[in-house]
Write a structure and sequence with these properties.
With 407 residues, the protein is of the alpha+beta class. The chain has helices spanning 85-113, 123-132, 150-155, 177-192, 205-222, 228-242, 286-301, 375-390, 392-395, 401-404, and strands spanning 2-6, 16-22, 29-30, 35-40, 45-49, 54-58, 65-67, 71-76, 195-203, 248-251, 254-257, 263-265, 267-269, 272-274, 277-278, 315-319, 338-342, 345-352, 355-369. The protein contains 10 helices and 19 strands. The protein is extended, with a radius of gyration of 30 Å.
Length: 407
């Protein structure tokens, strides 16, 4: 019996996927539920498992865009598992390098047969060209009958290069469907929104103090670290509730405002930027936020994140500080209307109580769509985030740290 394997729907609104990689070869015997391919949609990379055991026949090439529901391979379920298949597969792979080596020797042997006549290099010139890693075929000789002299070799420079030579290779790699979609969305955000960015700085001293005092107890009890993301998420939720327009988006001629906070967290994954969503983050405790951030980040980096887990956020937080960024203007994640950028934390001199003090400072940036968010609201929102982060015990923990951290 021949089973036709079709592309399953990765999620609503997705009509096609791209074959990123076949994990098996044409004619291989595959087991049921064995991963046979990786497919890219415009939102995630997913594994395609074999629906039955049997001999597989591939019907699509790597890089092909395949419609959802189209046949990508056939599985002959009546075929029995061949014995000694692994041994037979090893033989051709052992012979291939030998054939390639012989071919390379033949190619290398050709120049030796060339005379020193027209267009050839003298022994001295040949040595200099070899040291510069230059091809004699690209050098115009000035000697008799066009022969390349020592002087020609000394003066020769690589094309678009310098006399010192050096490698100037290049490679081309096709962008994955996910990367192309991210690029389209970023350009769309720049072209279709009235995006502005406002900046502020945050004294992280209070958060450092809380983390140093409670991080061990927090980790021991909840099996998750007390990071900065829970403080920023809680501060953002408070500010969104104070400034509802920041938690809104444009739909045609209407503005949609939400009474919940679905916070998207930008994560750098192996296939590009992933933005998993923490649903109803306003209902989560510090422990709940940290656990959800950890779970989603692991799934994104291991390529297990689903389309549903990356759809529907109302506001995004991105942390370029983990890569060392001091300051940036983050791009809005459409159709959202605002995004908060975190950056690295550096000890800087500040004025405190009329004196100069050294404190751990983070610059923060809020990019927003000026079509529905006014300057007063954007600045007020970022100031509210700053206030909450600089007074977390009072504004985020109701003056009861242990209760807030569930210790």
């Amino acid at each position: 019996m021949i089973l036709e394997m079709k592309v399953p729907s990765p999620g609503e609104s997705i009509t096609e996927v791209e074959i990123a990689e076949w994990l098996v070869n044409d004619g291989d015997y595959v087991e049921k539920d064995q991963a046979i391919a990786e497919v890219d949609s415009d939102k995630a990379t997913l594994e395609l498992p074999a629906e039955e055991s049997g001999i597989i026949t591939l019907k699509a090439e790597v890089g092909d865009a395949v419609a959802v529901g189209a046949v990508v391979c056939l599985i002959d379920t009546s075929a029995s598992k061949p014995e000694g298949a692994a041994k037979s597969e090893e033989k051709p792979t052992e012979k291939k390098p030998e054939v390639k080596e012989v071919a390379e020797k033949k190619i290398e042997a050709k120049p030796e047969k060339t005379s020193y006549a027209s267009g050839s290099a003298s022994p001295a010139a040949k040595k200099i060209l070899a040291e510069k890693d230059l091809d004699a075929a690209n050098i115009k000789g000035t000697g008799k009958d066009g022969r390349i002299t020592k002087e020609d070799a000394v003066k020769a420079v690589p094309s678009m290069g310098t006399p010192t030579g050096g490698s100037r290779g290049e490679s081309r790699t096709k962008l994955s469907m996910l990367r192309r979609k991210v690029a389209e969305r970023l350009v769309s955000a720049k072209n279709e929104t009235a995006m502005l960015t406002t900046f502020n700085e945050v004294d992280m001293s209070a958060i450092f103090k809380l983390r140093n005092e409670y991080k061990e107890d927090f980790k021991n009890k909840h099996n998750v670290g007390l990071g900065f993301m829970s403080f920023f998420t809680k501060a953002v939720i408070r500010a969104l509730q104070m400034y509802p327009s920041v938690n809104s988006m444009i739909d045609g001629k209407e503005m949609i405002s939400f009474d919940f906070c679905d916070i998207s967290i930008a994560v750098s994954g192996p296939k590009g930027l992933m933005v998993p969503v923490i649903r109803n983050a306003e209902n989560l405790s510090f422990r709940g936020v940290e656990s959800e951030v950890k779970r989603l980040a692991i799934r994104a980096r291991e390529g297990e994140i689903t389309v549903d887990e990356m759809t529907g956020g109302t506001f995004t937080i991105t942390n370029g500080g983990v890569f060392g960024s001091m300051l940036s203007t983050p791009i809005i994640n459409p159709p959202q209307s605002a995004i908060l950028g975190m950056h690295n934390i550096v000890e800087r001199p500040i004025a405190r109580d009329g004196a100069i003090a050294i404190a751990p400072i983070m610059y923060v940036a809020l990019s927003y769509d000026h079509r529905i968010i006014d300057g007063k609201e954007s600045v007020g929102f970022l100031v509210a985030v700053k206030e909450a982060l600089e007074s977390p015990e009072e504004l985020l923990m109701d003056n009861n740290v242990k209760k807030a951290l569930e210790l």
